[in-house]
């Protein structure tokens, strides 16, 4: 099902069969023309027991130094979530699993990020005037963990590192870290995800353009 969208949180909530959230009062997401697919956000961790969660934005362990999510939950549009399950299965055969940092992000949080960073850090965060693919439920931030130890692997940079070493084609770091970064990329790309040019951990699902920007709070999503 498709619908033409002028952003309205009440309409979006109705499409999802949810109680409507509070409307934005001062600044709102950009108005878009559809058609768009009906949103179907699902909680990724419920689809496969092998996913690990490390939702930094539900804690103070992030670049803001404070929590912006009320709960440690990760959502994606259903086709993207199913593709992620397939990626998890492929990685299991190689001894790794996926640790999830972030998925669907309400537009209001994108606005918080934009307002908080310095001008030289703007390339690392989404412009709220355009919206984010996280806002569409079609972007995922993630890494690998070792199935034997349960520990997150070492990549060429930490998550949310605003430096060149975070680029997916960065040639520094250890050979092992680059190998694991590239394993993640190869696996994700095989399931229809594309890596973001400045963030090895950020992947956009191929159908992101089919979905509209949303600003639904986690409290409005299914438990």
Describe the structure in brief:
This protein has four helices and nine strands. The chain is of the alpha+beta class and 223 residues long. The protein starts with a strand and ends in an 18-residue tail after the last strand.
What distinguishing features does this structure have?
Muramoyl-pentapeptide Carboxypeptidase, domain 2; two-stranded antiparallel sheet; 223 residues; globular; 5-stranded mixed sheet
What does this structure look like?
With 223 residues, the chain is of the alpha+beta class. The chain has a single domain (42-220), classed as 2-Layer Sandwich (Muramoyl-pentapeptide Carboxypeptidase, domain 2), CATH 3.30.1380. Helices cover 22% and strands 17% of the residues. A 5-stranded mixed sheet has the order 4-6-7-9-8, covered by helices on one side. Strands 1-2 form a two-stranded antiparallel sheet. Strands 3-5 form a two-stranded antiparallel sheet. A hairpin with a 2-residue loop joins strand 8 and strand 9 (199-205). The longest helix has 16 residues, at 175-190. The two termini are 23 Å apart. Residues 1-26 have low confidence and may be disordered.
